Amino acid sequence: MKNYLKKNKKVALALILESFFVGFVILSYVLASSPLKSKGKEFSIYIPTNNTFASVEKSILDSLSRDAESPSIIYYKWKLTSLFKSVEVFPPGKYTISGNLSARAILNKLISGNQDPVSIRIDDIKTIYKLAQRFEKKFEQDSSKFMNYVNENLDLLAPNTTDLPNEIRQQRVLERLIGDTYEMYWSNSPAIFFSRMNKIYTDFWNSEKNILASQIGLSEHDVYVLASIVRGETSNKDEAPEVAGLYLNRIKQGMLLQSDPSVLFAINTKEKRQRVLNEDLKFDSPYNTYIYKGLPPATIHIVEKRYLDAVLNPVKHEYIFMCAQPKKTGKHNFAKTYSEHLMNARLYRSYLDSIDIQR
């Protein structure tokens, strides 16, 4: 009788264990094929270059813990970890994970190397250091590696500038960039970034553009720097060719350009100003066009195509003065004579005083 009971207990235990195993297999299958429920629509996993299993595992589990919610979250952590142990090195990059991917689908996406792009906007950048900071926010490598690459390749990135101070050479690097928003990959190096930018730049400067530049007596460098001034003066694309024509008139007449945006760049102010004071105009800098004749030694902003085209296709007129219109129209009043300009300037100053703007 005892043997019978003992035997039945073993059979019962075996049945229980078998049932548990079958249930676990079924549950595993269901969970493996079920979607991961995320707090948002999607989340991103960043896999570094020269990664290890441990670094990738940490990145994935950190993202899951931060961005995903599911009754089976513990299972996903276990399943992903067990699956990923079979992979020695993962392709680096940013991978966007949608909320309906299973554990195996996540693994397949990561080992495919089919990373998702990142967007980088550069049309609002004024200095090479700001560009380095923007690069660090968008890509794997940090700003110090970006600047190291720039400094080690100045002959390539800013050709024909060996006789200039290093700070100006660095700023001239921006003159081979066309302002826009671009899609690239998180793992892209500074070398890849500049290679892409250089192709866009050289595509822009075709033979037709070079003919237009020669017709107005400017080099590629001159066109870019003048376009950066025009960009600083007006955000109105229809007015840009007219502003370009004004500055070309001043250049032809040997006048000081007297551009407020160049002064604001020279004093390196971080605040947005609607008023430039007389004390600002005295700041000694090669970028201050109220003191030094001609164009500044380098661009004061990364420039979009429309401003380059505005300089290459200027409106022909006789204006040599301009002043912002009152009431924030975004446009300017143009003048041929200094007396006309003084009238426009008084109107604008009176408007600023009426709304108590001192800067």
Any overview of this molecule?
- The chain has 359 residues and is mainly alpha-helical.
- The protein folds into 3 domains: 27-112, 2-Layer Sandwich (Dna Ligase, domain 1), CATH 3.30.1490; 117-203, no CATH class; 208-354, no CATH class.
- Helices cover 52% and strands 9% of the residues.
- It is built from 16 helices and 8 strands.
- The chain has helices at residues 2-33, 53-67, 73-84, 103-112, 128-138, 143-152, 154-157, 166-172, 190-204, 207-215, 220-233, 240-252, 260-266, 278-281, 305-312, 338-354, and strands at residues 42-47, 93-98, 117-121, 178-179, 181-185, 303-304, 321-324, 332-335.
- The strands form 4 sheets. It has a two-stranded antiparallel ribbon with strand order 1-2.
- Strand 7 and strand 8 (332-335) form a beta hairpin.
- Helix 3 (73-84) crosses helix 4 and helix 5 (128-138) crosses helix 6 (143-152).
- The longest helix has 32 residues, at 2-33.
- The chain is elongated and about 80 Å long.
- The termini are far apart.
- Mean pLDDT is 84; it is low at 21-27 and 29-34.
